[in-house]
Here is the input.
Amino acid sequence: MEAKSMLAQVIEALEDKKAIDIESIDVQKRCAETDYFVIATGKTDRHLKAMANATSELAHQQGLPFICEGREAAEWMLVDLDSVIVHLFLPHIREEVSLESLWTKTTESKEEAKEEVKDEAKDEVITEIVTE
Here is the structure.
């Protein structure tokens, strides 16, 4: 199954289970293991388990392999659907882990690094022109 199609189905399943603050992050250019992360919050451990079951059921219906981790603690559950990895959090754990900002900061720091390299190259060219 195509990754974008799976992503859309995962989001729909989470919406059906009343997941809170659903976000998707395209990690295709930054992660070799998957194409998308989906991050959502549940109100209780039972809510997280229901969301995990709904996303796992998508893979099961299509005969796709999946892995579900964190069922015992049920504070942070991960459902690995290969092209989409779903992270389900209780509110306080999501805030503490701040997975979205980790991936956003990675992107920003790479962009900032590229800008710094460009600026340094410009400075070198200017220095060469001035000294000649």
About this structure: Confidence is low (pLDDT under 50) at residues 106-110.
